[in-house]
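thought: fold this chain, then report.
action: predict
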Amino acid sequence: MTLQDLMQEAQGLTWQEQLHLATRLLQWAEAQMANQQESPQRHANHALTVAAENALDPSQQYAELLGILRQIRANGQAKYGTYQGNLLAEARSDRENSFSQFLDSAS
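observation:
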């Protein structure tokens, strides 16, 4: 069965059955991609799926997503550390240097 065949079959299902099918497909896809690096989007999609299954109210969904994002940030800080420089000042300086070089080459 192709994905297109599956999508055509799913159109005859109720919305609850479609949600259950989508959840199961997402779980299957996650199991197939388990060896790949996790991404924030994947975590967010999973949290939304779980929230829909459990019929959480929006504030609970928001709190769960916020918790996942905080965990992702903590993992990134633990793995890579925190940049101690001033990104804005460095970007401005780079832009000014590039512009000065452009002006020097044009004259």
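thought: worth noting. Helices lie at 3-10, 15-32, 40-54, 58-80, 87-106.
final: tokens above.
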